[in-house]
C-alpha cells in the first residue's frame, strides 16, 4: 500500500472512482478507523425529447385535425421544452428546507443551471437546465415524489 504524505492511498481512491463508474452511482463514502473517504462525481442530466416526423393528413376535415392535436398539446410530456425526471426519487425545489426555490414560473435559466434536486437513495442529484430559456410551467411541488420520465417543468 503506497500512501502519500496525507496517509491516503491513491489506489483506494482510483478503485472507488472505478466503482462509481461501474455501478453508475454519483457518490460513495467509506470509513476505516479514523480515515474517511468520500468520492463523488457530478452528473449533467439532459433530457432528450424524440422528434417525430410531421403528420400528414389526407383529406381530413379541419375539425378532426384540431381535435387530434388538442390532446397532444395538453400533454406536457409532448412539449418540446419539457424537462423530465431522470430518476425515481423526491424532488426538492430549493437547496434546503425553507430556502428560496432555485426557479419559479417566469425564472430565466441558462443551460447548465441547477433548477432542482432529486434525492434518490440518500443521494442528492442536481437537475440542470438542458437549455437556456424561461420556466413557463412547474408540474411538481417541493418534497414531492417523482417517477422516471415524469414531466417536472417546461423551459421555453
Protein model, in words:
By secondary structure, the protein is α+β, with helices and mostly antiparallel strands. Among the domains are: 10-40, no CATH class; 78-155, RNA polymerase II/Efflux pump adaptor protein, barrel-sandwich hybrid domain (OB fold (Dihydrolipoamide Acetyltransferase, E2P)), CATH 2.40.50.100. Helix content is 17%, strand content 31%. It is built from 2 helices and 10 strands, in the order αββαββββββββ. The chain has helices at residues 10-23, 62-74, and strands at residues 27-32, 35-40, 82-84, 89-92, 108-109, 114-120, 123-128, 133-138, 144-146, 151-155. Strands 3-10-8-5 form a 4-stranded antiparallel beta sheet, with no helix packed on it. It has a 4-stranded antiparallel beta sheet with strand order 7-6-4-9, with no helix packed on it. A two-stranded antiparallel ribbon has the order 1-2. It is elongated. Residues 80-156 form the Lipoyl-binding domain. This is Biotin carboxyl carrier protein of acetyl-CoA carboxylase. GO terms for molecular function: acetyl-CoA carboxylase activity. Pathway: Lipid metabolism; fatty acid biosynthesis.
Amino acid at each position: 500500500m503506497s500512501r502519500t504524505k496525507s496517509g491516503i492511498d491513491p489506489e483506494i481512491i482510483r478503485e472507488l472512482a472505478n466503482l462509481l463508474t461501474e455501478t453508475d452511482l454519483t457518490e460513495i463514502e467509506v470509513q476505516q478507523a479514523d480515515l474517511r473517504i468520500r468520492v463523488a462525481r457530478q452528473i449533467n442530466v439532459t433530457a432528450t425529447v424524440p422528434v417525430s416526423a410531421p403528420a400528414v393528413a389526407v383529406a381530413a376535415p379541419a375539425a378532426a385535425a384540431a381535435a387530434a392535436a388538442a390532446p397532444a398539446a395538453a400533454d406536457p410530456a409532448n412539449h418540446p421544452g419539457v424537462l423530465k425526471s431522470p430518476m425515481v426519487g423526491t424532488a426538492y425545489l430549493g437547496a434546503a428546507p425553507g430556502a428560496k426555490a432555485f426557479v419559479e414560473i417566469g425564472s430565466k435559466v441558462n443551460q447548465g443551471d441547477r433548477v432542482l434536486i432529486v434525492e434518490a437513495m440518500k443521494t442528492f442529484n442536481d437537475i440542470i437546465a438542458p437549455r437556456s430559456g424561461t420556466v413557463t410551467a412547474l408540474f411538481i411541488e417541493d418534497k414531492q415524489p417523482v417517477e422516471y420520465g415524469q414531466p417536472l417543468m417546461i423551459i421555453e
